Amino acid sequence: MINQNFIWLALTITVFGNFAYIRDTLKGKTKPNRVTFFLWGTAPLIAYFSQKTGGGGIQSIYTLILGILAFVILASSFIDKRAYWAITKFDVACGIMSLVALILLISTGNALLALALSLIADLFAALPTIIKSYKHPKTETAIAYAVEIASSTIVLLTIHNWIFVNYIFAVYILFMNVLFTTLLITPRKITRT
Fold first, then answer.
1. Burial of 187 (0-12, 13-18, 19+ CB in 10 A)
2. How buried is residue 98: exposed, middle or buried, by Cβ count under 10 Å (0-12/13-18/19+)?
3. Measured between alpha carbons, how far is 125 from 47 in angstroms, rounded to an integer?
């Protein structure tokens, strides 16, 4: 394991990647799904407080920053009218499922259960963007997801106390960013119907 101060390098990488996403959103090139980003802001903030309550270490700062940056991206999507992604019934259904998980986690006094529920909420929030990334990869900024792979890996390497609250969010973020990056950079054969 590496020194825990490397968490600051991970956070710098995270901010850099999200800055690229924000820049592309402000230009109208990237079109964030607002349901996803609202919930991607909410779930990590709740997860952060669950981590702190559950005895999490410095790695919880990573979770906090991810939540804050999601809200910054959400706000930036309102600045350029071209940055808007139309919300579908599926997006709303995923949003409702995510909100149900968030309500359940707020009502529990168990930090570990709350953390697990925040991950479930985050996953439901991600589904619309996973589908959008597959169907419309040009509406996303691949570099933002790719650099997050490095960031979450660094966070995992800083863990000295391998308890659930310290590693689960970073593992989840690593997995999700590998998925998003793969979806966004894999060439697709365009079929005409």
1. exposed
2. buried
3. 14
Q: What angle do CA 124, 126, 132 make, to 5 degrees?
A: 125
Closest CA to 73 of 125, 1, 121: 125
Q: Give the domain ranges of the chain.
A: 4-185
Contact indicator for 33, 91 with CB cutoff of 8 Å: yes
With CA atoms as reference, report the closest residue to 86 among 124, 32, 127, 135: 32
Instruction: Please provide the size of the chain in residues.
Output: 193
For 104-160, the pLDDT digits (tens) are: 766 776 777 777 877 888 888 888 899 999 999 999 999 999 999 999 999 999 999
CA 12 distance to own-chain centroid: 16
